[in-house]
Every structure is written in C-alpha cells, then in structure tokens.
Amino acid sequence: MASATKISLLIFFASSLLTQGILGELICENLPTNLCAFAIATSGKRCVLENYRNEEGSVEYTCKTSEVVVERMSGYIETDQCVKACGVDRGFVGISSDAFLAPEFTASLCSPSCYQNCPNIVDLYFNLAAGEGVFLPALCEKQKTNPHRAMLELLSNGGAVGGAAPGPVAADYVVDAPAPAPAPGYF
C-alpha cells in the first residue's frame, strides 16, 4: 500500500509541475535567443531578437519584448516546422519588409505549407506588407500564377499589389493596426 501512495504522490507532483509550466507566463526576456524570433509573450506582445556589444566589444544577442501586439495569439513560440516552411530564420535581428524583395522568401511565405499552417508568421508579414501598401493575399495569388510578374508589380508600383490595404507607414515592425480581413482560403 505504501508503494501505491508513493506512486500517487509522484504522479501528483509531476502533474503539478506540468500544470505550473502550462500556466506559467511566457516572458520574452526569459527566452533563450534561439527561440526568441517569432515568439509571442503571454502579454500578446511580439518578442524581438536584439544585438548589442558587450564590454569586450563582442556582439551578443538578447530577447526583448516589442510594442507590437498580436491580437489573436499569446504565449506562443513558433514551431521549427513553420520557421522552415516560411523561409524565415530565428536569428533575424528585427524584421523588415525588405524580405518581400527576395522571390524565394515570398514563394516560401505564400506556399501552402506556410500560408495555411503558420498564422503567427503570416500575421506578422501580413502587417508588414500592409504597411507597404501591399495586400498579402493578392501578392500570394500573383506569386502562384506568375512569380516574376508579382515581383515586378511590387517594385514598379512602389509596393502596391492589387487590393492594397491601408496601413501605417512601414517600419521594422508595424504595430498590428486593424488590417483588412484576409481573403477566403487564407489563414
């Protein structure tokens, strides 16, 4: 009987640790740098990888909480599968809309494995695109049918690709302003 009690206590202890971990807060500053980029704190704010020079002059990295709020997600660390499928890198320091100028990036972001399965990354780039006057679903549609034309239109129109969404001026991070709803079949 004592053995059954010990097993019960052990199970209770293990489950309490698991519950505490599940209910614990995700704080950007507590994340290791290799999990920082594309994570969202429990507060709903995006985590951002930053670099700085230490006292010896070497570059080091730290995870910080940005002011960018994600309305539909919190306490989330992006999966390795999504990082790979979307063509992003956890080593990114800051995020920029310049990524759209690389056809390989846009193809990865618009691929079904990313666009339909990775709402955190798609949401981030949806807002960055909107800040440039680009409606991401329209860009992805053009990417599917004619990737070269999509890139040419993006460059020649100063960013506007069919159905441009109003949005704030682009910055390294665009605060999640009310964005137009994505087209059906996306997200």
TrEMBL record:
Domain of life of the native organism: Eukaryota
InterPro entries: PAR1
Signal peptide per UniProt: 1-24
The entry's keywords: Signal
Matching Pfam families: PAR1
Protein's UniProt name: PAR1 protein
Phylogenetic classification of the source organism: Eukaryota, Viridiplantae, Streptophyta, Embryophyta, Tracheophyta
